[in-house]
Amino acid sequence: MNLDELAERCGEWLKGSGPESDIVMSSRIRLARNLADYPFIRRCTEQDRAKILRTLRDRILNSQELPNVSYVDVAALAPVDRQFLVERQLISRELSESEGSRGVLIDAEEKFSVMINEEDHVRIQVMSSGLALQSAWEQINRIDDLIEQKVTYAFHERLGYLTACPTNVGTGMRVSVMLHLPALVITKQIDKVFRSLQKISLAVRGLYGEGSQAMGDFYQISNQITLGRREDELIRQVSEVVPVMIDYERRAREFLIKQSQKDLHDRVSRAYGILCTAQTISSEETMMLLSSVRMGVNLGLIEDVAIPTINQLFIHTQPAHLQKIRGMELDTADRNVERAHYLQRQLRPRKADDGTEKN
Amino acid sequence: MPMKCLNCEKPATFHITELTGEQPQELHLCEECARSYLMQAEDKSDAGAPTLAGVLAQQLKLGQTAQELAKLDQRACPVCGITFYEFRQQGRLGCPHDYVSFEKELEPLLVNIHGDHAHVGKRPKRVAQSTDRRTELIRLRREMEKAVAKEDYERASQLRDQIRAFEEKEEGH
Fold first, then answer.
1. A138 and A125 Cβ atoms separated by less than 8 Å
2. Residues 6+ away with beta carbon under 8 Å from B163
3. For chain B, which terminus, N or C, has the lower number of CB atoms within 10 Å?
4. A351 has a pLDDT exceeding 60
5. What's the CA gap between B53 and B159, in Å, rounded?
6. Where are the domains of chain A?
7. To probe the interface with A, which of B55, B95, B171 has the most A CB atoms within 10 Å?
8. Inter-chain contact B119–A228, Cβ cutoff 8 Å?
9. Nearest Cα to A89, choosing from A153, A14, A164?
């Protein structure tokens, strides 16, 4: 797989096309699985890791039913390429930063990826745009079955699928939706909402999962429990809370408009103005301003830019992406300049050759 | 004479082993002081989702003496060799068989995390009973490594043949 080409494109899950995609950025499900005849990763020798990697990689690459899958040897990648795959959400930070044989299989449309030798031997994840957990489950269930045809998973009669960490045992499943909640942040209601989610054992994390800060007002909501409930029950639990969150966010937006449409319009227009004209800009400021613009577009306050463009900018303006797109290593100061130029190219109405404006 | 509470004059009825410091420390408290001690410990741990280490420490605090704990810490899984102490430190298990080796200790932990102790979801389509037989391979490979490390090549080659036979039989079926 050519990572430079991948950098120019955009994953299926960023297209902003699924149901409720003004607030639900993406849906994802992951399954944790382990082979029965090897120790869990922490106690594997390098020889064990190499064998596990080979077995699983060949199993997936040779499957007729999973075409268009490419293998990437993560251990052999340069740090910037590993960071690139993390920003792209195709691998986890843990896989990027650990040591020893490890890899990832990536679907050409980035609808799914399979990490090998992360915390568990196998981590399958399926991603889609908008609120689409049911189809994500159907897809991941099928991939799981295909892998399992040729390998024996560690499974316990009473405890289900066995995982390195007891917090994942049972279904080994994490169901999550990524929500864009800028109005709840502005109206300072976000903490209250999250406390109530924690009470019903749902976890809230930032854009890049465990331990990450909420960037660009994106929040991931996922199940905490993996044992004692069926997969469809776990999906339902997360699914049921999403319309409630959407409703809260929509009401907060209405409140902001009612309070002062002019102020809100001013706020999002200024954000757009800075993104279009800045000469140097940090990643944090970019995320914050893009969040305002995204809400502005969804409320019809900004008309000359489309949601998929904004979604893509959240990912493509991050450090490793900028360096891949530019084709060279850049330090922080150079990245800030490159980011500003990239934003201008993507956002400003371009003049066509005949001098007429087109967008 | 009954032991007195560390904080007041009442008899100590709770014996708590504190695991958060470098050495396990025993605290002898009366019911009232024990309750406020445990509440305070709970407040200190971040109000967010309980961490695995936190849940485990909390659970082991009750009803175990330092000696019992030291003994438990030394227990090792016969398949992968991980000790309970190592699991406690890292929060990650060593092999699938640990769920059998440490079943009694893990049970309350699982109930604490998941509110349940039995899986009801998807099952592998292939026969699941083979899991136990497969963990035998983990043990054999580990034994072979040990034999190689000790330069006992005769034993190592015996083990290697055993592993091969095992793998072939499994793949054939």
1. no
2. B137, B140, B141, B144
3. N
4. no
5. 37
6. 259-358
7. B95
8. yes
9. A14
pLDDT of residue B167: 78
Mean pLDDT for the stretch of residues A272-300: 95
Per-residue pLDDT tens over the stretch A35-63: 999 999 999 999 999 999 999 999 999 98
One-letter amino acid at B161 equals D
8 Å CB contact between A134 and A115 = no
Among B111, B122, B143, B170, the residue to mutate for chain A (most A Cβ within 10 A) = B122
A194's tokens: 């999250």
Q: Do B124 and A155 touch (CB under 8 A)?
A: yes
Concatenating the DSSP letter of every residue in A7-68 gives HHS--GGGS--STTTTTEEEEEEEEEE-BTTS--GGG--HHHHHHHHHHHHHHHHT-TTS-S
| Residue B171: band (very low, low, confident or very high) from pLDDT cuts 50, 70, 90 | low
> What local confidence, expressed as pLDDT, does residue B10 receive?
77
Q: B9 to each of A56, A139, B27, B37, how far by Cα in Å?
A: 64, 64, 14, 16
- What is the per-residue pLDDT for B126? 73
Residue B124 C-alpha, separation from nearest chain A C-alpha, in angstroms: 7
A36/B95 Cβ within 8 A:
no
Instruction: Check residue A334 and give its pLDDT.
Output: 96
